[in-house]
Amino acid sequence: MFIFYRSFKMKCSLRKAGFTLLEVLMVVAMLAIVGGAIITSYGGLEDKAAKGTATHAIAAITEAFLVYDSTEGGLPNNLESLMAATPTSPQYQAAELDSSADAVSGEAMAGNLMSPKLTDKFGLQTASANHINALVAAGISKLRFMDLKGNDETVATLDIKAADGSDATDVGALSAISIPQHAFEAPRPGSGRNRGRGYYLNLAASTTPTPKLMYWGAAKADGTTAGGYDVIKVGGQANQILVGMGLGNASNLVGEGVFTNLLHAPYYGNVAKNEYCHYIALIDVASSPAKLVAVVDSRGDFLDEEFAEATGQKP
To answer: In angstroms, rounded to a whole number, what is the distance separating the alpha carbons of residues 212 and 205?
Structure first.
C-alpha cells in the first residue's frame, strides 16, 4: 500500500512540474494576440514618438548650451552654418583632420534642408562686421560649411581635402549621401565616398567681404531688422537679431566641454532619410557677445510648439 501511494504521488508531482502541449500552444496564442495588439496600437505613431523625444531634446540642448556658457565662458564653437559655399584658398589642417578657409563665396542654403516650414523662416544675408565680431566674442571662431560642389546632384571632386589630406574625388549626389548627419563633416578618405563634404570658415580672420549668415525672423529680409513674430514666439525680444546654426559632431559641445560633453550630436527623427536632422541654435548677434535665445528642430519647431504637437493639441 505504501509503495503504491508513493508511486502515485511521484507521478502527480512529475505531471505538475511540466506543461502539456495544449498549455504551451495556449500561451503562444495569447502572446501572439497581445503582441499583435501592441503592434496595432503603436503602429503609425512614429511621428508622435519623434515629437515627444524632440521636446526633451530641445530642452536638454538648451540647458547644455547654457551650462557650457557658464563653465566654458562662451558658446560652443564649430557649429554648422546650414549653408554651402566655395572656400577661398582652402587649407588642409593635419592636426584636426579637417580643412579650413579664411573666406567663402557663392553661399547657398544647404540642399538637405528640405522642409519649407524651416527654410521659409530663414534668409541668407551678408553679415555685418558687428555680427561676426559678436560671434567671435562669444567663442564662435569657426563656422562649418559644405563645399558648394557637394551641394547638388552631380558627382564632383571637392575643393577641400578628405580627412586624411587626400583629394576628395567623385563625391556623389547629396540626396544619396550615405550618412546625412555627416554632411558638414570632413570628407571620408577614398574616391567615391559620398559622405562628408564639410570644412570650417575661420571667422577670426577678419575676412572681407564678411560671409552670409542664416537670419531668422524679420532679419531674414535684410540681416539688420530686429524682432519679428518668429523671434518673439521662440522666446526672443523685439530688439534681437537671430541667426541659425546647427549642432553637429564637430562642435566642441560634443566631446570637449569639461562639464557638458555630449557623446554624439542629437538628431530629430521625423525627417526624410537624406534630410538634415540636427537641432538648430538660434543665436542673437545684436548683442555682444552673442547669446543663445532658443533651439528648434530641423523642421523649425520650437519647444512649446513641439510639445503641443506631441500631445495632439496642435495638428
So the answer is: 15
Interval 270-286: pLDDT, tens? 889 999 999 999 999 99
Give domain status of residue 295, yes or no.
Answer: yes
Show the DSSP H helices in the chain as ranges: 2-17, 21-42, 46-72, 116-119, 129-137, 229-233, 303-310
In tens, the pLDDT along 69-110 reads 988 899 999 999 999 999 999 999 999 999 999 999 999 999
Residue 144 one-letter amino acid: R
Regarding whether 73 and 28 lie in a shared domain, the answer is no
What's the pTM? 0.83
> Could you tell me if 116 and 77 lie in one domain?
yes
Angle separating helix axes 46-72 and 303-310, nearest 10 degrees: 150
Which residues have CB under 8 Å from 16's CB, separation 6+?
A: none
Q: What would the grid cell of residue 68 be?
A: 557650457
Give a yes or no: residue 315 inside a domain.
Answer: no
Give the domain extent around 189.
46-310
**Number of domains forming the structure of the chain:** 2
| CA neighbor of 237 nearest in space, from 225, 222, 227 | 227
Which residues, 6+ apart, have CB-to-CB distance to 100 below 8 Å? 87, 90, 91, 93, 142, 199, 200, 201, 202
127 inside domain: yes
